[in-house]
Amino acid sequence: MFGKFGMEEVPGAFGTSASFALRLGQTVFSSASLLFMCLDVDFYAYTVFCYLVTVMGLVIPWSITLLVVDAYSVFIKCLPHQRRLIFMILLGDMVLSYLSLAAACSTAGVTDLLLDADGSYCPPKLCSRYQLSAAMAFLSWFLSSASCLFNFWIFPSL
Amino acid sequence: MFGKFGMEEVPGAFGTSASFALRLGQTVFSSASLLFMCLDVDFYAYTVFCYLVTVMGLVIPWSITLLVVDAYSVFIKCLPHQRRLIFMILLGDMVLSYLSLAAACSTAGVTDLLLDADGSYCPPKLCSRYQLSAAMAFLSWFLSSASCLFNFWIFPSL
């Protein structure tokens, strides 16, 4: 499981097809989270929901950019692993994965509190959308943190 | 900044004095978070506060154990870096750092919501204790995640 890979062969690291799949998943889940939270919902009323929307608004362009770069690397021409490039990707992934986890957790916590408060704050239909949005943000965090770990794995050998 | 270190010389990795300092900080901050939340506060009323208390109850023994092991390694006899041992420490640190971040964020989100709700749910003195507890949990997360990253840095070379 933890054998020595060459730096090109680590699945999930930048430029591989596994990384492409991870980025695709991040794009899908973060977009779903944003849509569940935004569409027809008055999310401005709560600070944490605004925070979730802000974070997802950062994660989506980041994931799409790297999705395109990975697609280029997989299908057209393999890009070299430059130390500086991997470091920037690593840093961005780490920051965004922590931000998504923070957003997902605070959304889940607040939704739970709103559900407990005898239904006056949160009609069931709305609350289930908040929950779905938090779940999607968790999935997006999970994939983003997987990307981060795979890139971190190859980084010391560069 | 990212020169090649030998595996023994990475500051902050298992068995170094920097790691000892990190573990000490984790122990102090997680205990402070637990005490701010528990002492004279009716935290059972909210799910997320119970979650914070549970997580801190896991982080404290973990930090203390590794504090003792690091102290042994620094002051008495340098322990070897076994691959299996570092992997277990790495895994534990990663899980606990994610759990602390989740607890800190959900506590901060719920406290913010309680503060917004016209003061009826949360007297100012109580709310400031919740905030302090969340801040301490954030600091504990930060140190825990630093430990995790330093150990992850040396892991591929083992």
TrEMBL record, chains A, B:
<keyword id="KW-0472">Membrane</keyword>
<feature type="transmembrane region" description="Helical">
    <location>
        <begin position="43"/>
        <end position="73"/>
    </location>
</feature>
<dbReference type="InterPro" id="IPR006702">
    <property type="entry name" value="CASP_dom"/>
</dbReference>
<keyword id="KW-1133">Transmembrane helix</keyword>
<comment type="subunit">
    <text>Homodimer and heterodimers.</text>
</comment>
<feature type="domain" description="Casparian strip membrane protein">
    <location>
        <begin position="15"/>
        <end position="143"/>
    </location>
</feature>
<feature type="transmembrane region" description="Helical">
    <location>
        <begin position="85"/>
        <end position="110"/>
    </location>
</feature>
<protein>
    <recommendedName>
        <fullName>CASP-like protein</fullName>
    </recommendedName>
</protein>
<keyword id="KW-1003">Cell membrane</keyword>
<dbReference type="Pfam" id="PF04535">
    <property type="entry name" value="CASP_dom"/>
</dbReference>
<dbReference type="InterPro" id="IPR045009">
    <property type="entry name" value="CASPL-5"/>
</dbReference>
<dbReference type="GO" id="GO:0005886">
    <property type="term" value="C:plasma membrane"/>
</dbReference>
<keyword id="KW-0812">Transmembrane</keyword>
<comment type="similarity">
    <text>Belongs to the Casparian strip membrane proteins (CASP) family.</text>
</comment>
<feature type="transmembrane region" description="Helical">
    <location>
        <begin position="130"/>
        <end position="155"/>
    </location>
</feature>
